[in-house]
Structure formats: structure tokens, C-alpha cells
């Protein structure tokens, strides 16, 4: 076969520098260690600071570095695995769940979520906010949408505000027999509220995992979890497969 045009393009300087920096991170620096400043690094590797910034940005995107406000650039811990196999057949809030409830309040669901729930556009549902932390850093934020009918036995006395209300909603939801669930995974950009919860800048790359929970022949709840793409990776167990759909409903399960 002939040489393609791309094969003749020389490797960008920042990409070569990224490879060199990766080797240095593996051999010279520990997790959490603060890197020297840009001026020192540029002088050490004999490159312009603009080239260095490009390499550092790429390493941050790949999850090797973290830029923390008031701290500097540090070596990131290994990415946290996000299991997506079909064996994950438990309700949110079940024993061993790593998520921490933060709040719960009634609100209308986004149009796409309302359609999945079979809810009217103006119908209010319980919106449970939860967060997930790894090694002291926020790595994911979740909005769990639960129709009022899924927790019909909930009373005002049983459901105080904030995290306590969230735990009660999760407890009542788990009273149903879970019949199954499916997940869809997409690459997205952090919205302002997600960015704040995840200590990222708006527009930072994120993984959006949407999960539907089925009970009594209907969708009993929908979870929209936003994961930091620089600190999380998707894992698939032996019982989990990957399906690729070319329509609007791309799905991974």
C-alpha cells in the first residue's frame, strides 16, 4: 500500500514532549507530587512554554495530571474504574454503593428524561443529588430522577429535607423488585453545575452515564451520572457486552 498523507506528517513537538513527560512521571514522580513550574520544566526539556502547555494539557486530558486551584499541577492517581457490566443489578443506595446522597427536591425532569420515565413535561419528580469521591477528590456527580409513583408510600414526616430526604427516597425505591436496567454512555462537556461539583472548569470533558431502572414493567427511575473523564475509565465485566447503535439511542450495557 502507498504512503498516506497523514503518515508523512511529522509528529508534533508537544506530542513528543508528552511521551518524554510520561516517562518522567513514571520514573521520577509519585502520585500527588507537585510538578515544578512551567518555566523550570520548559528549561529542563529545552522547549517553548507554549509547547509545554500543550503537552501538559494533553496529559491532564488523559488523566495523568491534575491542575488544582491553589496547589499547582500534581501527578494524578490511577483512574477509577466505572463498572458497566449487566451484573450491576442493584438499586442506587444499596449496600456497598459508593455514592453519597447530598440533597433531594421535587422538580420537573429534562425532556429526554421525562420521556424515559413516561412522565408529562410539567410533572414533578423527586430529584436526588449524589456525589462520588475517590482519594479525597470528587470524581462524579449524579442526578437520580424518581417519579412520585415509584415512592408512593413516602410521607412528609418520613421525608425531611436534604440528604436525609434523599436517603428516604432511595430506601422507598428499593422496596420494589428490580427487574433490570440498561445504560447508555456518551462523551460530553461539563455544564456549570457539574463543573462546580467536580472541581473542574465548565466545558471540561466528562463521561455521561444514563441508567434506567425497571420495576413492575416500567421505568421506575433514571440516573444521569457525570464522571470526570480525566480520572475515570469504563470497565466491562465478563457478563457485560458493548452494543453500538447508529441511531439516536446509542447504548452500552
UniProtKB/TrEMBL annotation:
PROSITE patterns: HTH_GNTR. Keywords: DNA-binding, Transcription, Transcription regulation. The keyword Transcription applies. Gene3D superfamilies: Chorismate lyase-like, Winged helix-like DNA-binding domain superfamily/Winged helix DNA-binding domain. It comes from the Bacteria. Residues 11-78 form the HTH gntR-type domain. PANTHER family: GNTR-FAMILY TRANSCRIPTIONAL REGULATOR, MANNOSYL-D-GLYCERATE TRANSPORT/METABOLISM SYSTEM REPRESSOR MNGR-RELATED. This is GntR family transcriptional regulator. It comes from Streptomyces huasconensis.
Amino acid at each position: 500500500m502507498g504512503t498516506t498523507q497523514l503518515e508523512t506528517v511529522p509528529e508534533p513537538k508537544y506530542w513528543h514532549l508528552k511521551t518524554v513527560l510520561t516517562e518522567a512521571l513514571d520514573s521520577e514522580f509519585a502520585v500527588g507530587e507537585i510538578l515544578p513550574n512551567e518555566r523550570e520544566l520548559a528549561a529542563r526539556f529545552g522547549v517553548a512554554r507554549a509547547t509545554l502547555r500543550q503537552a501538559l494539557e494533553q496529559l491532564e486530558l488523559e488523566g495523568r495530571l491534575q491542575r488544582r486551584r491553589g496547589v499547582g499541577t500534581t501527578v494524578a492517581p490511577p483512574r477509577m474504574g466505572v463498572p458497566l457490566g449487566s451484573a450491576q443489578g442493584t438499586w442506587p443506595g444499596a449496600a456497598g454503593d459508593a455514592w453519597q446522597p447530598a440533597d433531594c427536591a421535587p422538580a420537573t425532569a429534562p425532556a429526554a428524561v421525562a420521556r424515559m420515565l413516561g412522565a408529562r413535561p410539567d410533572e414533578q419528580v423527586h430529584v436526588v443529588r449524589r456525589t462520588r469521591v475517590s482519594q479525597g477528590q470528587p470524581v462524579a456527580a449524579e442526578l437520580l430522577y424518581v417519579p412520585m409513583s415509584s415512592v408512593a408510600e413516602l410521607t412528609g414526616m418520613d421525608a425531611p429535607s436534604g440528604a436525609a430526604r434523599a436517603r428516604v427516597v432511595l430506601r422507598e425505591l428499593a422496596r420494589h423488585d428490580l427487574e433490570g436496567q440498561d445504560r447508555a454512555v456518551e462523551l460530553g462537556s461539563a455544564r456549570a453545575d457539574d463543573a462546580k461539583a467536580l472541581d473542574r472548569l465548565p466545558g471540561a470533558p466528562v463521561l455521561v452515564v444514563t441508567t434506567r431502572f425497571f420495576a413492575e414493567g416500567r421505568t421506575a427511575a433514571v440516573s444521569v451520572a457525570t464522571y470526570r473523564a480525566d480520572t475515570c475509565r469504563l470497565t466491562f465485566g465478563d457478563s457485560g457486552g458493548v452494543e453500538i447503535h447508529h441511531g439516536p439511542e446509542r447504548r452500552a450495557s
